[in-house]
Fold these 2 entries.
Entry 1:
Amino acid sequence: MFGIVPKLQQYVCAWNFWPAFMKKFIMSEKGPFTIFFWTPLAKWGISIANIGDMRKPVEQVNTLQQCVIAWTGLLFTRWCFIIRPRVYSLVLCNFCMAQTGLYQLYRKHQQGKLFTR
Amino acid sequence: MASKFSGIFWTWVHSSTGPKTTHFWAPVCNWFFPIQALYDWNRDPAKISKEMQCVLVCYSSLFMRWALRISPQSYILFCMHLFNATLQGRLLIRRLMWESSQQKAIEDKPTN
């Protein structure tokens, strides 16, 4: 918006110790100074947070939230196969998100608390 | 004579991004995130997961920017993530305020 990020990108890229492949990565269209790099990481964060929450008691697991995570994960796994270009890392990310959601729901079901808030 | 299944509506229904395809339902399902946050408006703060709420706020904030940087821009996706970030953020704040009050109650408890 204020052109800060491109300036920062130029500043970091100008450091002398970067090898050529790192400079190419920093300046690329999907590099760490663009949003396209960070959005898949954010989606992985949901799976990681869910894996972390597996240690917590099932009362703290939100049934509706896990249903939404599992359902959107499955649907986006399918969506990632029909868009072009196919990005298999995104397929994996959405699939893992769905699996962690389904496992949390299974944990709740095992203790008979699937429909308790 | 126009067929019963012609016209703008039916053309859209049968189109490659219409309601018979995943292209339509995947973004619609994204709206379940803020709807879930609305449903949990008064959820007991002890049952809110701080880590998950943090991640959802970050996720929506990043995707708000992403929705405006993709081509074509998606303002509906932007709105959805804006609502989601706000509502999930509200749940996060509820949890943090509850934790803070719990901490204060422990500190204020008279020791015998």
Note: Residues 74 and 88 of chain A are 14 Å apart (CA to CA).
Entry 2:
Amino acid sequence: GAERTAPGAAVAANMGSGSPKPRQKFCGMFCPVEGAAENKTLDLDSLSPARGTPRNDGRVIDSTAPPPGTLCHPSPVLLQSDRLLIKGGKIVNDDQSFYADIYMEDGLIKQIGENLIVPGGVKTIDAHGRMVMPGGIDVHTRFQMPDRGMTAADDFYQGTRAALAGGTTMIIDHVVPEPGSSLVAAFEQWRSWADSKSCCDYSLHVDITDWHKGMQEEMEMLVKDHGVNSFLVYLAYKDVFQLSDSQIYEVFSVIRDLGAIAQVHAENGDIVAEEQRRILGLGITGPEGHVLSRPEEVEAEAVNRSITVANQTNCPLYITKVMSKSAADVIALARKKGSVVYGEPISASLGTDGSHYWSKNWAKAAAYITSPPLSPDPTTPDYLTSLLSCGDLQVTGSAHCTFNTAQRAVGKDDFTLIPEGTNGTEERMSLVWDKCVVTGKMDENQFVAVTSTNAAKIFNLYPRKGRIAVGSDADLILWDPDITKIISAKSHNLNVEYNIFEGIEVRGAPLVVISQGKIVLEDGNLHTTEGSGRYLSRKPFPDYVYKRIKARSRLAELRGVPRGLYDGPVCEVSVTPKAVTPASSAKTSPAKQPVQPVRNLHQSGFSLSGAQIDDNVPRRNTQRIVAPPGGRANITSLG
Amino acid sequence: MSYQGKKNIPKITSDRLLIKGGRIVNDDQSFYADIYMEDGLIKQIGDNLIVPGGVKIIEANGKMVIPGGIDIHTHFQMPYRGTTTVDDFSQGTKAALAGGTTMIVDHVIPDPGSSLIEAFDRWREWADEKACCDYSLHVDITHWNDSVKQEVESLLKEKGVNSFQVYMAYKDLYQMSNSELYEIFTFLGEMGGIVQVHAENGEIIAEEQARMLQMGITGPEGHVLSRPEELEAEAVFRAITIASQTNCPLYVTKVMSKSAADIISQARKKGNVVFGEPITASLGTDGTHYWSKNWAKAASFVTSPPLSPDPTTPDYLNTLLASGDLTLTGSAHCAFSVAQKAIGKDDFTQIPEGVNGVEERMSLIWDKAVVTGKMDENTFVAVTSTNAAKLLNLYPRKGRIAVGSDSDLVIWDSDAIRTVTAKTHHSAAEYNVFEGMELRGAPLVVICQGKIVLEDGKLQATAGSGRFIPCSPFPDFAYKRIKARKQLAVLRAVPRGMYDGPVSDFSPMSRGGTPSASARTSPTKQTPPVRNLHQSGFSLAGNPAQRGAPSTEETPIRPAGRRIVVPPGGRSNITSLS
């Protein structure tokens, strides 16, 4: 067995002492170990007895809120004997904290309370008053992502392992279909990768990288048959993934009708392309060119535009990767105006900044490349954590998409070719704790909300995920707010040489991680099982999002003004441009034209029939009239 | 002072005028003095002037004398699908003079695909023949390619045009893509032009129009329903972003809504060089009239961006105008007869767009902003005349009462009360969007080119007397800041050694193919790498990199990861020179 025996055992040994421990500054469980990185691949056969029973089918589990007790897992083989009792913990949900014991069986939370009556032979974990929280949900990962023949360095195994090590028990990955190819085929492809390798439960967002005939049907199929309720569109990557405003309008309309969430990668791709050309023209080819060609204004502009389109189509919007103050401000402002919009800052934007793009070490600078880029403004992380704390931003992801230095070096002479993505799935929980809770910006309940509960609500996994309650999944973490560790590539669970949070000391880390009712992290040791992660299908129309949307669509019936027929003179017109507009847009839209006139925007509040005082005031007869003479008096104002 | 346009004036000869006892109001101060004018110029200002005999004397009796208004946005005699707007240059400029405006700036709208210069010449011809007051021209860029670029350059350098409008609306007709906007902004930023934008998201409008028609909404209310103010604000935001990227001064025409105005004031607070132009209609009325049961009346309000149905909009815009967040005012006067509007009687998208406002502009702003105490008379002069002159680079020839300036003056009667009505207005349109509005403040005497054109309520204008006033590039009002930023914003690369470590194999397709791909779609070639953005504020030399973990800077961490795509052995070659 090559599992790491970290010195964290010392911490665990102290656990029973019941007295407040001094901070294990020196020998925390994440203390870097010489050469630890050499042994990152587990010999699983020797580790997990369940390894021999592969489960391929029947793992799609419906995510409807499980009525307590009636839930039946299709594959009890694996989970059958997992009985766990956490004693003496402080349960932290997003709404309250309270002391109670938790009994889990078959991957579910069965009982919560004091003096529980549990079967014998149950493994008991003594929490000693520490916090027990719902496991984290990383809403944005890109494990194993293909990019021009390469594949992201962390695959679903390595990635979910890192996630678990950091206290995240569920990830939602992005399916990125090649433009022009089938969404469902790409989805199946990702399913097969993840099913064989994932160590924790997962779900999938599907990216709309193209918009053509048949897409709408595929989206419908994904929502109805495959449990996908979120689709991402790109406003960037011109000529590759980028969609036009009209296309986005149509995609959003489809998404709203299907009851899904529209996600956007918000950057103005047109401007980015121009700026890239200009920066290369200036002879700037290094990683600093990446951030210079993608200034934060361009991010804010795209956020603003997507919010506008979402408001028009009455579609809920989710901004992935909020990287800059300006973009966050636009979101905050839109929320104040009532837009249904959510913002997702990521580990990188919460934890570090873009000054590193100017590092003289090319490989280091390249490791920070992601889009939108990290802001060079060093006050950004603090600002974003504040907005996250006050609720203007709601969820956190990692956008974990790692490439090793050799892969990054594809762009050594041209920053536009550097594969994009940063790490963060492992560091996310600790970073947020350190930056927000330790600093007093949020309490532990809000922490649970932004790292887990809100994500579960938005993506319709609540209360199965994101809450400690009877009937919920047994994805829990025992959180130690006092552990301090220094993030380093020497000790992280990733396949890459650089960690963008290198050297950052964070306080707060998971002590025990329970995923699917099994202990996967204890005493600093990871016990993960490749392929044990289940795909969670998500139902459309999440209440958290769609209650408001539905109310608005009921409200917004538009009516025309009843008027008599105009029978006055009409000018002769040469049939030329202008106002050919509506017809031409039909031409470009693959979506079936008949959008039902149901839903609509908020602005119908105005009283629609407004007679004016002077409606019937006679108009003077002017001399110059283009219309045939005599027609003047016929202008009707009926009604 | 010598002016090219002068040869166009056949007879401004012996006009000698003395205004006695007036209070001169400029944008910076007011003071009592007499004004003596000769040959269309102001020759002397002061007390007890020594003037030749036989001079006509106007007794101002302490009333205000202000620089004549400049209406920076008109569409007179605009061709529209085989017809022409009802107010031609003669009718339009007469209306302007009647309202106290002594100069107009019209928009040249070339058909997409046709020559800009030819269109410009055509407009010149029309206006020279008919205009009763001085005029200048903006040229709209309705398509973009290399030859347009050359034409723009020659218009700027030789023809006296310093402002060009681009459209973000009118999909498949005038609308420009973001890349085209970027190129145009870049180009004009270098050449010293002002970019004007018609700011509305044309793509979404097209979608919304289709939706409205499909719902059976065909009347004028469909116009405003399909063009909600958010779409205006969105486009303003986008235009500002692009202008800021390209370090180009931006001018937003027709600010019609609170949201759009807010975006402009926000941007100005962030330091962007952006100017907003509310128009008479948005300052004076609102979009509730689109729901009028009288089709012809509702249709007469159709303009784009539409009037906001929010009735608090005019008050809001007047406040921003007074506070300086919005800079100057136009009328966007573009009047159609009811018969012309009726082209769209069964489909609101076919209704020709435009409202009146050239005649009412000055009185309306006086009434809404000065009478209410939002602004003083100096600010009034600034927003109706001086700021426009500065932006057009005509200051101080226009927009100021000073020795040497053109004698375009108005004696303003702040107590006159008039009711606006189509029965008495000078426009040829049957409807007036301000119908029934009682306005306080009106011109008593209007002097244009040193001649009295309005006195005792009588208008005596001469068609063809208006001169074309050429505008030169790089107006200080906008470009001083732009130039300073340009000098500041030099980007530098980080000096690094060559990377000589392992490189993964990759198929050079998708993703990152971006820059080359964009070259394909851009009609004009590679922009020279000169100009630049403001955001160079961050020190580019890379001192920030010193923060963080300096120790790791020199010694990159390279754990020998197990899964590695590169050839084995290559690992340790990753260099970090210097």
Note: The first helix of chain B runs from residue 89 to 98.
